[in-house]
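Design job #97: recover the sequence.
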C-alpha cells in the first residue's frame, strides 16, 4: 500500500540530492492507496483504548489494508479514472461515516499525484517474469512475528511478512525463489506493544538499545530490547524455509561479561521449545536461558571469521546448532564493508 503524498515528498527530497529515478523505481497499479482518512482512522483506533493498543505507526496502513480486504479500497490504477474514483471514494467515506466536505480538494490532490506517478507504473508480474533469468533480490519488510497470520496476533502488521509475501506482493512465482536468507539480529527487539519473553527492563537492555541505536526508523520510538530468543528464531526459520542466516549487529554484544540465549519457555510449569500459536500464552512464557561467556574485544574492524574472539565464535556456533541453520554472514558494524563471510 502506498501513501501517494508521502511518496512524492520522498521522491522530491531524493531528486533534490541528485538521485535519478529513471528505470529504477516501479509501481504496480494494483497497490492500495493510503488516504488521509486512513490516518485519521488509525489514530482514532489507537486512542480509543489504551488496553487494546497495538502500537502502530499511525500512518493509516492497517485501515487501508482493511478496506482493501473489504473490497472497498482504492488502488493506484483507480486514480486514472476520475468518475470511478469519485464514486469509490464517496462510497468509502460513507462507509466510515466520515464527512465529504473536503472530497473535491482530495480528488484534486489525487489527480495531481496520479500525473506525477504515471511514469513509474509497471505491470510488475510481467516485468519480473521477463527478467527471471537475472539475479533478483527480494527484501522483506518487518519481521516474521509481525505477520498478520503467523505472527503475535493481534500485535502484528496488516500484511504478510513471510517469504510467501514475495509472491503475494509481486506476483513472482514461489518456485522461482532459489535461496532464502533469514536476517536475524544478534539480540531481539520489538517496537510497539505485544509479548516479548526475553525483554530486558534493566541496564543491560538500555545498553543494548544505546549501542545498537535501537530507535524506530519510522517513529523514532525506543525499541524494546532483549536476549536472543532461539525458540522464536527457530519457528521463523521453519515457516520461512530459511536456507542460511545473516546475523547482524554482533559488535553490539562486545563488552558483556555473559550473554544469554533463550532455548525454551516454561509454560504452565512445563518446558517447551515450541513457539505458542496462542499469543496470550507468550505473555506468561518464562524464558529458560543458556549462559555463555562474553568478550571484551572490539570486533568492528575484523573481516575474517577465525579472527573473532573464541567466545564470539562459540556464540555463533551455538546459534547455528539451536536454529539448525548455517550462519553465512555476520555484520560487525553499520557499513556494508563490515561483513564477515563465514566459510
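Job complete. Output follows.
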Amino acid at each position: 500500500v502506498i501513501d501517494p503524498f508521502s511518496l512524492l515528498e520522498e521522491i522530491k527530497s531524493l531528486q533534490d540530492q541528485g538521485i535519478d529515478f529513471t528505470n529504477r523505481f516501479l509501481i504496480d497499479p494494483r497497490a492500495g492507496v493510503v488516504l488521509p482518512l486512513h490516518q485519521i482512522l488509525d489514530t482514532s483506533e489507537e486512542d480509543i483504548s489504551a488496553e487494546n493498543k497495538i502500537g502502530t505507526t499511525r500512518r493509516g496502513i492497517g485501515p487501508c489494508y482493511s478496506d482493501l480486504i473489504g473490497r472497498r479500497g482504492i488502488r493506484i490504477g483507480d486514480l486514472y479514472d476520475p468518475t470511478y474514483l469519485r464514486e469509490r471514494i464517496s462510497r468509502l467515506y460513507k462507509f466510515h461515516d466520515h464527512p465529504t466536505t473536503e472530497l473535491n480538494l482530495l480528488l484534486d490532490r489525487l489527480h495531481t499525484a496520479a500525473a506525477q506517478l504515471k511514469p513509474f507504473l509497471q505491470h510488475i508480474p510481467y516485468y519480473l517474469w521477463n527478467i527471471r533469468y537475472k539475479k533478483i533480490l527480494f527484501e522483506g519488510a518487518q519481521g516474521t512475528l509481525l505477520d498478520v497470520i503467523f505472527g503475535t496476533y493481534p500485535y502484528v502488521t496488516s500484511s504478510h511478512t513471510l517469504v510467501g509475501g514475495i509472491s503475494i506482493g509481486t506476483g513472482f512465482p514461489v518456485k522461482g525463489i532459489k535461496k532464502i536468507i533469514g536476517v536475524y539480529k544478534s539480540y531481539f527487539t520489538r517496537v510497539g506493544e505485544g509479548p516479548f519473553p526475553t525483554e530486558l527492563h534493566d541496564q543491560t537492555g538500555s545498553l543494548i538499545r544505546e549501542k545498537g541505536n535501537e530507535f524506530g526508523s519510522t517513529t523514532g520510538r525506543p525499541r524494546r530490547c532483549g536476549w536472543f530468543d532461539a525458540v522464536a528464531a527457530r519457528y521463523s526459520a521453519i515457516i520461512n524455509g530459511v536456507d542460511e542466516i545473516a546475523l547482524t549487529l554482533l559488535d553490539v554484544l562486545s563488552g558483556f561479561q555473559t550473554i544469554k540465549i533463550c532455548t525454551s519457555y516454561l509454560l504452565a510449569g512445563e518446558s517447551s521449545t515450541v513457539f505458542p500459536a496462542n499469543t496470550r500464552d507468550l505473555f506468561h512464557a518464562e524464558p529458560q536461558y543458556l549462559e555463555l561467556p562474553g568478550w571484551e574485544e572490539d570486533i568492528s574492524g575484523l573481516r575474517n571469521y577465525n579472527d573473532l574472539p573464541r567466545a564470539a565464535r562459540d556464540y555463533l556456533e551455538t546459534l547455528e546448532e539451536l536454529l539448525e541453520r548455517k550462519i553465512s554472514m555476520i555484520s560487525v558494524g553499520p557499513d556494508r564493508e563490515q561483513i564477515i563471510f563465514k566459510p
